[in-house]
Design brief:
Layout: H1 3-8, H2 22-41, H3 56-66, H4 69-78, H5 81-87, H6 90-110, H7 112-124, H8 130-139, H9 149-167, H10 173-182, H11 186-208, E1 213-216, E2 219-222, H12 226-240, H13 254-257, H14 261-284, H15 292-320, H16 335-353, H17 360-382
Antiparallel strand pairs: 1-2
Helix pairs in contact: 2-3, 2-4, 2-15, 2-16, 2-17, 4-12, 5-9, 6-9, 7-8, 7-16, 10-11, 10-12, 11-12, 11-15, 14-15, 16-17
Length: 392
């Protein structure tokens, strides 16, 4: 099929919903492991230095993961939204999304999150009681949500998508047509994606700064990244709206056939980010606030790296993990549950490891292994409860 005929096809011509394939499912599971790695190494980095041990290599990990993985989660979540809206009534779609996102967020906000942050409270106030700490958190605050902020933000995007779909089911046609052209020319899609996300993210970073969060009880989100996440979500929704098997993420497309070019492409913006970090620490002396020129260039390199990592990971899984067996497969059904419960295990294991005089890399390996094992075991147990698989 030529690129011209694909690009000129009406995006409504293919009635089939997005088919969940091995590559996408494995990508999602892989990202769950990235989340666990991210939280395992933070205490041993320059900025998250809550443990006496430290290793520069973990700063390299966090710089990379923080720059792409949550945006990529929104992208993958968006892929299946438009087909779901096409085949479900608004009420059915809302009930499904609330059950999968709203209910877990509410339960975890009152259980997993207080248990997790109690470990940090004990480090500062060893005699604090949990009941007193819990009551103070949910009444007076602060009431952080940890990584679970993703759930309520995704629910908001889903409900927004539902409203937009009722207004115009063809709203995402331009993105889908671009995806069809991306079958043969993924670089074109990449450049458009970078341009869109750059326009949305860089001004937000300049206006809000990198550390400002919108917060209302457990409902929190990083102010400078809200529009970035929305862009990734709706770009994903546009790709998945129709013709999934003939678009950018087709198993037969050029992205799936690409070699290591995308991986190499990530190195340029990644190195430039490190150059800016060196300028901030070694030349500017960590000023607060940072100059606007610094925030501008950091935002530009950030968006390029984020999109390049997205394409790199998708290219790998589309090319090498489309079929057969993968080490990620046994975890696939439990990945969402692992994401939901892991934070409490991660923080408590770090609390217990704090006083051990062992290298940071040993602590991370122990923390990651135990967090994964305990989170997976708990998820498996929870999924045995009747009806739990509809949520987990």
């Amino acid at each position: 099929m030529t690129s011209i005929s694909v690009a000129s096809a009406d995006v409504r011509a293919t009635p089939k919903a997005v088919v969940r394939n091995f590559a996408i499912d494995r990508t999602r599971t892989f990202l769950t492991l990235v989340v666990l790695i991210h939280h395992a190494v933070i205490p041993y980095t320059y900025y998250g230095h809550t443990d006496p041990k430290y290793w520069l290599g973990f700063d390299c990990v966090v710089l990379a993961t923080d720059s792409f993985f949550m945006a990529m989660f929104f992208f993958l979540s968006g892929l299946f939204v438009w087909p779901s809206l096409r085949h479900k009534s608004p009420g059915s779609f809302f009930r499904d999304r609330f059950l999968r996102l709203g209910l877990p967020f509410a339960i975890a906000a009152f259980t997993i999150i207080p248990i997790a942050y109690y470990a940090l409270e004990l480090r500062q106030h060893p005699t604090a009681g949990f009941a007193e700490f819990w009551w103070k958190m949910v009444t007076a605050g602060p009431w952080p949500s940890g990584p679970l902020w993703f759930l309520w933000v995704l629910l908001t995007f889903d409900l927004t998508a539902s409203l937009l779909y009722r207004i115009s089911p063809n709203l995402l046609d331009p993105i889908n047509r671009l995806s069809l052209r991306g079958f043969d020319r993924p670089v074109e899609f990449f450049l458009v994606m970078v341009a869109v996300t750059m326009v949305l993210y860089v001004p937000s970073r300049l206006y809000f700064g990198v550390n400002h969060w919108f917060e209302l009880g457990p409902f929190a989100v990083q102010a400078s990244r809200v529009l970035l996440y929305a862009a990734y979500f709706f770009i994903g929704a546009g790709i998945g709206a129709a013709n999934f098997d003939r678009g950018l993420l087709s198993a037969g497309g050029q992205l799936a056939k690409s070699g290591w070019g995308w991986a190499v492409a990530t190195l340029v913006p990644y190195c430039l980010l490190w150059a800016l970090i060196y300028v901030k620490r070694g030349i500017l002396g960590n000023p607060s606030p940072l100059p606007h020129w610094y925030e501008f260039f950091y935002g530009v390199f950030f968006t390029v790296f984020s999109a390049a990592m997205l394409f790199t990971i998708l290219a790998y899984f589309l090319r090498f993990k489309r079929s057969g067996w993968s080490v990620l497969d046994p975890m696939q059904k439990d990945a969402y549950g692992i994401f939901l419960v892991h934070y409490a295990f991660a923080l408590w294991i770090q609390y217990w490891l704090f006083d051990f005089d062992v290298p940071a890399i040993v602590k991370v390996l122990i923390g990651f292994a135990f967090t994964l094992a305990t989170s997976w075991a708990l998820t498996r147990a929870l999924r045995q409860i009747p009806g739990a698989t509809k949520v987990l």
